Amino acid sequence: MILMYHHVAPRQSLPAAPEPQEGWQFTLSPGGFEHQLIALKQRGYRFVALAEIVDGIRERGVQDGNTVAVTFDDGWVDNYQFALPVLKRFCIPATFFVTSAHLTNGTQDEKRMSVDQLKELLAAGMTIGGHSRTHPSLTRLPLEQARAEIAGCKEDLQQALGVPVRFFAYPGGAFNRDVARLTRAAGYAAACSALGPARNDASTLFWLYRDLLTEGMNTWGDRYRLCPAARRLLSFRVTRRLKTQLA
């Protein structure tokens, strides 16, 4: 399983008029985030870095069923403020998919993590991945512009952080066959989609399935995602959505 998060923040710090494109509907409180990690450990899941999952798939052809990787999209500063301390306390690695334009064009974006904060994540054992330069819907761009967003983000982050950037996540989960091909051509080892739940294998490396759980982990959707039998039985639904996106 690969978990997908956006914001981790106390309820009182949420914006009064949240921007719909900023993913505030996916916010967990720090306590709720901690509860999820503890509950998953109690269920027998083993937290590993995304790299371990990808390398394991390349070696064995399929993801181990009891492994789980934590990923965050967009690079919000609350990830640094509230999620990182929880991850460090439990010694859990995570991958943070970040946009790069604000890191290289001299502008300040107080909502997103700075270069110094990203370097602190790296020093704590976290991984930084690409999420495009400006977070567009990549499927709506001309191919050359999409290529610049995908490959340019990798170049920006590697120059700013001084580390290889191996993984990518499609902004808004939007990808098709051409976007996946451009991502592979840019030199990424794998890419995450917003599709799920389903088990990842060698055929899904450039649209890795991820899971989004609610804070209470008590909805029917949560139960479905946390039940191996249900995941196997209903995986055809994910495959059907994938075919639509790749068309």
A few lines on this structure:
The chain has 247 residues and is of the alpha/beta class.
H/E series? EHEHEHEHHEHEHEHHH
The N- to C-terminal Cα distance equals 25 Å
Q: Which structural category fits the helices and strands? A: alpha/beta
Counting H and I runs of at least 4 residues, what is the number of helices? 10
- Average pLDDT confidence is 95
Number of domains: 1
Contiguous uncertain segments of 5+ residues: none
Helix content: 40-55%
CATH superfamily: Glycoside hydrolase/deacetylase
Task: Write up this protein.
The protein is α/β, with parallel strands linked by helices and 247 residues long. It has one domain (2-8, 19-246): TIM Barrel (Alpha-Beta Barrel), CATH 3.20.20.370. Helix content is 42%, strand content 12%. It has helices at 30-42, 50-60, 77-90, 101-104, 115-123, 143-161, 177-185, 220-225, 228-233, 235-246; strands at residues 2-5, 46-47, 67-74, 94-98, 127-130, 167-169, 190-192. The strands form two sheets. Strands 1, 2, 3, 4 and 5 form a five-stranded parallel sheet that branches. Strands 6-7 form a two-stranded parallel ribbon.
Descriptive labels:
42% helix, TIM Barrel, 247 residues, 12% strand
